[in-house]
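Consider the following input, taken from an annotated entry for FkbM family methyltransferase (Pararoseomonas baculiformis).
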Amino acid sequence: MASSEDFRQLHRRAARSLIRRLRPFAQPVLARIRFRLRGVLDASAEARNPTPRQDPLLHRLEQLEIQLQRTQIAVDALRLDHGDAHRALRERLDQLGKDMLSAQARGEEALGGQLREASGHLAGMVGDRTERLLGRVAIPLGGETLVRMPEGYLLLPAEDVPLLTAMVEGGGRLEPGTVAVIQAILREGDVVLDAGANLGLTVLPAARRVGPAGRVIAVEPASRAAALLRRNIALNGLEGRVTLHDCAAGAAPGKAALHVGAISGHSSLLGQPGADRTEEVEVRPLDDLVPPGTRLRLAKLDVEGYEAEAWRGMRRIAVENPQLALLVEFGPDHLRRAGLTPEAWTDLFTSAGFTLFEVDEADGSLRPVRPLAELGKVHSVNLLMLRDAPSAYPELRFA
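Applying the prediction step yields:
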């Protein structure tokens, strides 16, 4: 489990990433001001011809530019909250630029004073707004909602109220126990497969955990979810370590009808209660998506009842990776639609040498799977499947 200090560091990194991503909103106004300030101080510097290190005004300009960069966050926060306030801030920034330009005629001392005044004003104006923005859990952005999680930010469909509610109540986590297990298994440089990646709720934690040298192979067939996931990967600067395949995982290549549910992540190649539409998707075996010879540490299969078919399509992967760990969703309702009994379903994995453990979503601890008669009564549970002894995973917690 990650420590509180780890989460604070992740939050700081996510905040810096958000600042970079939101920068274009305020760039036009701030660029004009920066250009004017440069012109004023360059003219003054040419007249006196000091070195940049000796010029206190250029030092003040650097400080002011830092404040201007922070102001970009405030501009966007105001845009989200209130159009009139956003326009007022733009007018204030324009006026500051004009004041700086006119200060050149009043001499160096007046210019220095103007810089100090502007810097102080911007610092006070930005501080509270920036902290409020970064402290938010969810920010509405029209058709999507930007939600903060410990590893970064996700764009979620604004119409998916149940998911948004669960994310807000969970502090940016939907399945905290599963995420804790993923983080405990993975190490720097590992490769992980996420079939049923949805919007990135487990992709982001996995990508952060494996680091720049690692890789996440994500598979998501639903067109809206896959499009948002692609944007989420870019939003968090993870293009270099996440590969997205917008297709379904199955036993053989082909085409199939995906039943798309109103709740993100509740889409299935099987008949799905509550599905309001279907879309044709490509089906590919996972063996085709993972290059031969890839050392795969973990594979997550959460494909709404199609897990057995996804598993049949990754036999080469299983042979090449004898120490592979699996995270698989078990749902009795899904199995009934697939025509499988719990006994037949679990035998697919136990016959391949896996020992099954249930994931406690409250704290990420693991316990041996309960008897099948009782397991068949649960609504849904994520199962961790290991070939190695539990002692091979020192960061996992077994009850």
